[in-house]
Design goal:
Elements lengths: L9 H8 L4 H18 L4 E5 L5 E4 L5 E7 L5 E7 L5 H4 L8 E6 L2 E14 L5 E9 L25 E6 H17 L4 H7 L10 H13 L7 E3 L11 E6 L4 H8 L5 E8 L16 E8 L3 E2 L5 H17 L4 H4 L19 E2 L5 E3 L3 E4 L2 E4 L4 E9 L5 E5 L4 H22 L20 E5 L1 H7 L7 E5 L7 H13 L3 E9 L16 E6 L4 E15 L3 E7 L8 H19 L6
Parallel strand pairs: 9-12, 15-23, 19-21
Antiparallel strand pairs: 1-2, 1-5, 3-4, 3-24, 4-7, 5-6, 6-7, 8-10, 11-12, 13-14, 16-17, 18-22, 19-20, 22-25, 23-24, 24-25
Helix pairs in contact: 1-2
């Protein structure tokens, strides 16, 4: 079978091939090759029943498109023409789960139908549209109980406590809650004490196991199986978190923003390789994996590296690069906000995948751009905002109390000496409160010297509604100086099916990539935040996005949060009364 290229720019490219100008011919040949490779990318859509048995392929679709974000549920849309043979099956989403598997180069994602629409357009055509959500969404429906092993009516601890390397924290959250549901733990007590009149729910898990055993296999592994990293071999950053009835998905979205941890949920089907040596899966199963893609490696490849990373991150958060002459004497590269210590064996391994922004060159007297695999890119450089910062707003409590006590003493003494009564001793309480030591100022002299005397952004006040001159104020000052710095963000997209790096082979969702720019003098490294795909009757695209365009959060924010969470965890574990 001969493939035919149908592209609106084909006549122009054909003309360029006959131009006789070498660089134009090369450019046209490249564009034709890219377009042909893109149009020749197959997208397979398969609809499945509630047990992931294939119903059939969704051929003759109008369009299928979607996105696969980092640490969130993928989203997709499937459009079919009127009277499509799959319409009766997709319409069953009202009563049961309808699965959809979308496969293309480097991607195989399982979705379920969240909504199925039938719409008559103004042109008289009926379009069937299915809104799809990835099976990652199961994590958004796993609330974390404070005491997962106890009945819902008995929760003596106010929060669940998790303290270990970050990958193990996330795995434990999901594994505990999925085991609680899939095993039917305390199911009888939960429903009986909640006065559920349907007695079938008292042994619901057992009844479902008997009914569906032939199609689901082991009930303990259905639907979710969590692949465990192992605490002793987990070298991701140390992390502490207390949780009360938040879902696993919500917690993941909150705690992974500042770290290179990637959480994936994929559909395992018979014939695929087992997720680990303990799985022994025999039926379709949702498999959750947690990987540290920060590319920071320690000397031992064990949990000891996690402790070492915590120490290096702590000193970097507080001291910046002050200790670099000792910890990083050769000035080895690490992305902004990442601290390493090659002297101690803690290094950053640059990602294998790198892309360069095109340079402007002159060929045959014409200004053109050099070749680049990038489809689009945007590099944003932001100026520093303020070289002098003020925080605070309230005087220390002890100072206000001391002043109030002094006023009371003066009033009482005056009444005794002058011989009159009836004046309340607290008459002057609050007088001159928040007048002394209510603010704290720091000047960043190096920044002041760099921006010069004419930069309008001079002084910034950040209200904190708390007293300064304490350890919390130190964290706040470091954070405001970081947030007001000059910084660079970048967002770049490139083709995932016919570019220099193949999705699923060289690069993966959540992995690190580097963007080399400014004539190869600067490097921006960030995670693959989004994979987008689109297929219709005229085009097929698979694009990858590096970065999210947002400034990097200072590590001191997570350090402060960890300290607060450890204190909260101690109070919870000791059943201390909440204030």
């Amino acid at each position: 079978m001969t493939a035919v290229l149908d592209h609106p720019k084909l006549p122009f490219w054909t003309k360029e091939l006959d131009s006789g100008v070498a660089w134009r011919q090369a450019e046209a040949a490249k564009n034709i090759a890219d377009a042909f490779s893109s149009s020749n990318t197959d997208v397979k859509v398969t609809v499945c029943d509630a047990f992931w048995n294939e119903i059939g392929p969704a051929g003759n679709y109008i369009e299928v498109s979607g996105t696969i974000p980092r640490n969130a549920a993928p989203q997709a849309t499937l459009k079919l023409p009127e009277n499509h043979w799959l319409d009766p099956y997709l319409s069953q989403c009202e009563n049961t789960m309808v699965g959809v598997i979308i496969e293309t180069d480097g991607i195989s994602e399982a979705f379920y139908v969240k909504r199925h629409r039938e719409k008559l357009d103004e042109d008289g055509k009926v379009t069937l549209t299915s809104e799809l959500v990835g099976i990652w969404d199961i994590l958004n429906y796993l609330p974390i109980w404070p005491s997962w092993y106890l009945p819902i009516a008995t929760q003596p601890f106010s929060h669940a406590i998790y303290f270990s390397p970050l990958c193990s924290v996330i795995e434990a959250m999901a594994a505990q809650q999925s085991f609680r549901i899939q095993s039917g733990l305390n199911e009888f007590l939960n429903n009986a004490l909640s006065l559920n009149p349907d007695v079938r729910t008292y042994i619901g898990t057992m009844l479902q196991a008997i009914k569906n055993d032939a199609q689901t296999g082991s009930v303990l592994k259905t639907p979710l199986y969590v692949v465990r990293t192992g605490v002793l071999t987990d070298s991701s950053p140390l992390f502490c978190r207390t949780v009360r009835m938040e879902t696993v998905g919500q917690v993941i979205a909150d705690i992974t923003k500042a770290y290179g941890v990637d959480v994936r949920v994929y559909l395992w089907r018979p014939g695929m390789e087992q997720p680990d040596k303990y799985a022994n899966l025999t039926h379709p199963t949702y498999v959750m994996t947690v990987k540290d893609r920060s590319q920071i490696e320690g000397p031992t490849k064990t949990v000891l590296d996690s402790a070492l990373r915590f120490l290096v991150d702590t000193q970097g958060s507080l001291l910046g690069k002050t200790l670099d002459p000792l910890l990083n004497p050769n000035g080895e590269y690490a992305p902004e906000g990442v601290y390493i210590a090659p002297t101690l064996g803690l290094v950053f391994v640059p990602p294998y995948a790198q892309l360069e922004t095109p340079d402007t060159i002159v060929a045959d007297g014409e200004v053109i751009r050099s070749k680049s695999a990038l489809m689009t890119y945007e590099i944003v450089r932001s100026t520093p905002l303020g070289w002098q910062h003020i925080i605070g707003g309230k005087s220390p409590k002890w100072l206000n109390d001391l002043m109030n006590a002094f006023y009371s003493f003066v009033i009482d003494a005056a009444q005794i000496i002058l011989g009159f009564t009836g004046v309340p001793s607290n008459l002057l309480d609050g007088f001159l409160n928040d007048a002394f030591f209510a603010f704290q100022l720091i000047q960043h002299y190096s920044r002041r010297d760099d921006v010069g005397p004419y930069h309008p952004a001079i002084e910034v006040f950040t209200p904190t509604n708390s007293s300064p001159y304490n350890i919390e104020a130190l964290f706040q000052l470091i954070q405001v100086l970081w947030d007001s710095r000059g910084y660079t963000t970048a967002v770049a997209t490139f083709r995932g099916q016919n570019g220099p790096f193949k999705l699923g082979r060289d690069i993966f969702p959540g992995a690190l990539m580097s963007l080399v720019y400014a004539s190869r003098t600067k490097v921006f490294t960030d995670h693959i935040e989004l994979v987008s795909f689109k297929s219709n009757r005229t085009s097929r695209e698979l694009t990858v996005q590096i970065g999210d365009g947002k400034p990097i959060q200072h590590p001191i924010v997570e350090l402060k949060r960890n300290v607060s969470e450890v204190i909260a965890a101690v109070n919870i574990a000791t059943l201390a009364p909440s204030s």
